[in-house]
Design brief:
Layout: E1 2-5, E2 14-18, E3 24-26, H1 31-42, E4 45-46, E5 49-55, E6 61-66, E7 70-71, H2 75-82, E8 86-88, E9 96-98, E10 108-110
Protein name: DUF1667 domain-containing protein
Pfam families: DUF1667
InterPro entries: CPE0013-like_sf, DUF1667
């Protein structure tokens, strides 16, 4: 039995996941918690937020994020790959900065106009 705190919404439900009983999840107050508990033990993923270099912007770094969650094991590889990325302004919120980063199926998108 694993105990987790759900991070999907602000409630922070205390979940219990029974690995021996088909990953049955208890303690959730919404369906998102049940999905999170199962997914966290079978294939954990995260949305990545970071920055990339920008030329001609009002700041030196442009905030970015993945447009979907990626496998937790690829976080450091993605962040390292972003070190080599440099863009030029103007950039709009939602612009794709890197398409399909490291074959994860996730795009890196801008989270600020600059």
């Amino acid at each position: 039995m694993k105990e987790l705190i759900c991070i999907v919404c602000p409630k922070g439900c205390h979940l219990r996941v029974d690995e021996e009983n088909g990953y049955a999840v208890t303690g959730h107050s919404c369906p998102k918690g049940q999905d999170y508990g199962y997914k966290e033990l079978t294939n954990p993923t995260r949305v990545i937020t970071s920055t990339v270099k920008i030329d001609g912007g009002i700041h030196r770094r442009l905030p970015v994020k993945t447009n979907r969650d990626i496998p937790k094991g690829k976080i450091f590889d993605v962040v390292k790959a972003l070190d080599a990325v440099e863009v030029s302004s103007p950039i709009q919120v939602g612009d794709v900065i890197v398409k399909n980063i490291l074959d994860t199926g996730a795009d890196i998108v801008a989270t600020r106009d600059m």
